[in-house]
Amino acid sequence: QVQLVESGGGLVQAGGSVRLSCTASGRTFSSYAISWFRQAPGKEREFLALISWNSQTSNYANSVKGRFTISRDNAKNTVYLQMNSLKPEDTAVYYCAAGGTFDYWGQGTQVTVSS
């Protein structure tokens, strides 16, 4: 079993940057692909990015490609989401999920982008 905790959210101005962290407990963290999602009020949860267990593969949604970067440090049991050139429409609760079928989820961290 893997427990995930997101952190790094907060209030940022449009055009700014934020780095989110997803820290996991459990020895098997390094064997899981990790994904980031977000959910804005009144909208469905949206896939953002995925990174394979060994960082060899990463995929991004078109909406964030070129602005967001996913990375991981298995020694620290942590996956990061670097978010640049933020827009007000990036305001949402951001979640990380473990596994190819998103078996485990964190509680989310709020990111608010002011115009």
What does this structure look like?
The chain has no helices and 11 strands. It is mainly β and 115 residues long. The strands form 2 sheets. Strands 2, 4, 5, 6, 9, 10 and 11 form a 7-stranded mixed β-sheet that branches. Strands 1-3-8-7 form a 4-stranded antiparallel β-sheet, with no helix packed on it. The protein is globular, with a radius of gyration of 13 Å. 33% of the residues are buried.
Straight-line N-to-C gap: 40 Å
How do the SSEs run, as a string of H and E? EEEEEEEEEEE
- The residue fraction in helices comes out at under 10%
Q: Please identify the structural class as seen in this structure.
A: mainly beta
Low-confidence stretches: none
The gross shape turns out to be globular
Mean of residue pLDDT values: 95
Rounded to an integer in angstroms, the radius of gyration calculated over CA atoms is 13 Å
How many helices? The count is 0
Total number of β-strand segments?
11
Instruction: Summarize the main sheet.
Output: 7 strands, mixed
Per DSSP, what share of the residues sits in E-state strands of 2 or more residues?
A: over 45%
Which helices and strands appear, and what pairs or packs with what?
Blueprint: E1 3-7, E2 10-13, E3 18-25, E4 34-39, E5 46-51, E6 58-60, E7 68-73, E8 78-83, E9 92-98, E10 104-105, E11 109-114
Parallel strand pairs: 2-11
Antiparallel strand pairs: 1-3, 3-8, 4-5, 4-9, 5-6, 7-8, 9-10, 9-11
